[in-house]
Design brief:
The complex is a heterodimer of chains A (112) and B (115). Chain A has 112 residues and is mostly beta strands. Chain A has no helices and eleven strands. In chain A, a hairpin with a 5-residue loop joins strand 4 and strand 5. The N and C termini of chain A lie far apart (33 Å). With 115 residues, chain B is mainly beta. In chain B, the strands form three sheets. In chain B, strands 2, 5, 6, 10, 11 and 12 form a six-stranded mixed β-sheet that branches. Classes of the chains: A mainly beta (112), B mainly beta (115). Chains A and B meet through strand 4, strand 5, strand 9 and strand 10 of A and strand 6 and strand 11 of B.
Chain lengths: 112, 115
């Protein structure tokens, strides 16, 4: 399967724990994007990364959230000290430069 | 700022009916791209189409067709002879010169096709 891979598909955390969401882009894609879908809402852009660089993080909350896309391995979206309001579906997309973004299946984060 | 409006929150039709999902956008960019994505009940996001601002030709793909009109800033999506499997949330999205690669999504339209 050459599609965008995300894991885990479902993640349950208690308040105050850390959540790590992983995204492997499609083969040949070097651009990764993270979006968040809160319950009953549309998708909101969070961050855009290329290998080892954050290109646009204008949609990322200022605290507790960080993202990386290392030279080797998947992109990671990290949420520290999760709160109930972080419960959402987190989608990763990948693309070649200037082309269509293809989405992964998403990670559903539930904070208890 | 860019904005995408999908005024229809929910639409319900009976199988074999035609249905049109509306999308109106706002942008000051000269060059921009419009997209439709489908989110079935299983939750993944499926790419359907991408159009650039210089190509106003309508597009047809099987039972799906898209009508892009710059004069009204609209990019509407029509499903002909709808089927139960078309039931999903459909999102219209926009990207442009000033927003870079990030997509601005509409709120989505929940389409239910009843047998």
């Amino acid at each position: 399967n050459a599609g965008v891979m995300q894991n885990p598909r479902h993640l349950v955390r208690r308040r105050g724990q850390e959540a790590r969401l992983r995204c492997s882009p499609m083969k040949g894609h070097s651009h990764v994007y993270w979006y968040r879908q809160l319950p009953e809402e549309g998708l909101k852009f969070m961050v855009y990364l290329q290998k080892e660089n954050i290109i646009d993080e204008s949609g990322m909350p200022k605290e507790r959230f960080s993202a990386e896309f290392p030279k080797e391995g998947p992109s990671i979206l990290r949420i520290q000290q999760v709160v109930r309001g972080d419960s959402a579906a987190y989608f990763c997309a990948s693309s070649s430069f200037g082309t269509t973004q293809y989405f992964g299946p998403g990670t559903r984060l539930t904070v208890l | 700022a860019q904005k995408v409006t999908q005024a229809q929150t929910e639409i319900s039709v009976v199988e074999k009916e035609d249905v049109t999902l509306d999308c109106v956008y706002e942008t000051r960019d000269t060059t921009y791209y419009l997209f439709w994505y489908k989110q079935p009940p299983s939750g993944e996001l499926v790419f359907l189409i991408r159009r650039n601002s210089f190509d106003e030709q309508n597009e047809i793909s099987g039972r799906y067709s898209w009508n892009f009109q710059k004069s009204t800033s609209s990019f509407n999506f029509t499903i002909t002879a709808s089927q139960v499997v078309d039931s999903a949330v459909y999102f219209c999205a926009l990207s442009g010169e000033t927003s870079g690669s990030r997509l601005t999504f509409g709120e989505g339209t929940q389409l239910t096709v009843n047998p």
